[in-house]
User: Fold this.
Amino acid sequence: MSPKLPPDELIPDYRSDLAHDGERRLEPEFEVVLEDEGRHSIDGLVTSELISAEAYGEWLPEAEIIETRGTWSQVWRRFRKDKFAVAGLVVVALLIIVAVGAPWLAPHNPLTQYDSGLTAKGQPVAPNRHFWLGTDLLGRDMLSRLMYGARVSLVIGVLANGFALLLGVIFGILAGYFRGWLETLIMRATDVMLAFPIFLLAIALSSSISHPGIWVLVVVIGIVYWAPMTRVIHGEVLSIREKEFVMAARLTGCTNRRILTNHILPHLVAPIIVYTSLGIATTVLLEAGLSFIGLGVQPPTPSWGQMIADGQQYYTSALWLTLFPGLCIMITVLAFNLVGDGLRDAFDPQQRRR
Amino acid sequence: MAAPRKEHCPRWTLALLVVAVAGLVALLAGCGSSTGASGGGAATTSTTPKSGGTLNVSFQGEPTGLDPAVAWEIESWSIEHCIFNQLLTYATAPGPAVVTADIATVVPSVANGGITNDGKTYTFHLRHGVMFQAPVSREVTASDFKWSLERMLNPKTSPRAPAGYLYDSIVGVKALAAGKAAHAAGIKVVNRYTLEIDLTQPNYVFDDVMALPFTAVLAKEWVAKYSNSAIARHPLGTGPFIFDHWSNGQDIVLKRNPNYFVTGRPYLDQLKFEFAASSTTALLQLQSGQIDVLGSGIPSGQYVQITSNPTWKKQVTAAPQVGWYYVFMNVHVKPFNNLLVRQAMNYAIDTTKIQKLLYGQAQPLNQVFPEGMPGHVDGAQFYTYDPAKAKQLLAQAGYPKGFSVTFYTHNVDPMPKLAQSIQNDLAQVGVKAQIKQLAEAPYWGLIERQSANVPIGLTDWYMDYPDPSDWIGPLFSKSAATTDGSANVSWWWSPQVEALYSQSQPMAPGAARTKLYEQMQQVIMQQAPVVPLYQPILTTMSSKATGGFYTSAAWTFDFPSYWKK
Assistant:
């Protein structure tokens, strides 16, 4: 490693960026570079990133302004600028409030089959002063059921996704860092999983279990979604392990474990956060789908997918039975997707879609 | 930094998608109501049957098979009614189920010499010139009937004869069914066109059971060509329609039999049974003209809407069925081995609410025998909805805090709805029921196996023949309680009912016999192996292009009598 790289060798990249995007494009690169200075400069050794940062610093004075800000505050600053992402975040926050506070916020008991909730002919009651979003086919309050349904969706969304993530990170790191036959094994298994229709696999798994429920769903969805997560993490690890700071750490005699935990894992935080928020959206959809066909959460626990299934017979006579849970699913999925997109842009502005 | 944010395009696409989806929902909703309104115009009232055309029927469930010796569901029977004939049959006309002659020339009676004075010997004279369908194409003789009956009753040749017990009174059938004899001595071929059947004791429902599809005539050489189990997918008989093909999960198609022995019948060239994904889909297909008869009835969630629509309500047929929906409790499984718990369930379940949920498709039934079945007592009510009483009984039984149980149901409308309503009622008295919902075929397979120990669940039963022995024999007798595959899924029986049942069997129909069945009903309701929920009203629809449509008490659908306008 030569201690001093001529700036010219690095600059062409920048020039091309400058050429079509102006100064805005430069800012992120510096942040990344400067982050690394804090985290990865090793006593007695100067990494090439550090050098290049200095080189850019000499070349472009703006670097000093940005230097004072931490990674997270920069991410937040960029995220904040994205109105859609912020709107998504607000919706997600509201959903969490509703889900957590359902027992206090819900106007009725979601399981009670009200006498006044059915017409004389046994039909669901349309939205009114008493039942704000109407009642369902058994005379239960739609609004309260939707609020409790948010709990199911979020709990499964977060836990199932967390489980998929855990598997994905473990397999992804193993494959990406150690390579060799382990990589071949894991990545080919991932390919097989990805080639299999996800919904079909989820149906097969959950129908083979005699008592479906929230925990079964968490495990099933986790098993179904580990593959895409593994692939993402694998790719990230592959590129990180070739970086100079990893090489430097290895040269100083760090163990694999130390390199993984101190040098590689911190760099995976960004993709993990982004894919978690995008993954929750997919998970909510999958849960709704499974509950719709009766393999998800079991009655009487309200779940949005199951509410749509129950209401489908009434869609010409009582649209609210299917419309509201449908909207809930759509809004939730949309919100998590917007937040995920926003986070991706905020963490890694270089990869913005054009 | 306020640089233009081109990268947001994809999100606008998302927003557009939202709008599009909302629009689609509105459109769909609009479609639903507009098809209803635009289909107007008075139906051309042609009452004279017309020949030709295809009738499309939708069934929600695929039949298990079309072997008349085995199949025992509404779908199979209504299709078998098109392909096969028995010696006797049920009148193909609206109203109660009346036995009439089919391949026999007359219904045997003491007056016409068909039944001997002691009521033990029946003589059937066959019509001449009744031909098996192509490619067998030969005349049906008395020995074909002997062979078909013995096949149905012989455990070695028939895959499973679920209704074998109905024919136990024929001389020699018990030995045949036990595998100890190859033939039943009581079934005698007198000559080419005469069959004699000897009974061990008079049996006043014998002509009824001889009209059931179990006794249909099959061609020996055709059954030999396939195996005994494969014949369920290659039925061949003497009936008005010839089996054409069966595409798994898709449809069954029948074609007109040009050599049918009743001249001028059937009217239709072709019958097509389609298996719809759901009854809701089928209803939409009927409204758009793709389907002529709703084989699975009007979905419970749409009945009120359909009957309040001026156009479609004219197409609706509603007729109370002799049948019942009920909760069974397995008397061998805790806690339902306890009489007090079973009685508590009868007090705990709000059947009035269920009847309200099924508005127009259910009538109250708080006893075993439905209206239309002898033994039914008008207005009888053994239990009323009384959760306090139920709690008290549970406490007496040693369950003051209730208990947890898995409640079984299949997934065809209206069962899931009933299960959720009952689950709620049980929760009120402290019983935590977890619903376990299965597809229909595996569901019956499970609950009809005693070793599966299914504790409690939903089931139903429809009349096969208009005699209360059709309720006691399969549902509450000792022989059914000890046989896997029977419909006695409570596995309950009592010596008292057995005694009354055997006392009633040789008796002629009439007040004295009916009285015995009323007594049996009292014992059953007191012992409470079941909770009666309601008596179903069959509500179905036919398209405007369907002529002669009615629902039959015996066959449910009598396709050979329908025509296409």
User: Anything to note?
Assistant: Chain A has one domain: 71-351. The radius of gyration of chain A is 25 Å. The CA atoms of residues 198 and 204 of chain A lie 10 Å apart.
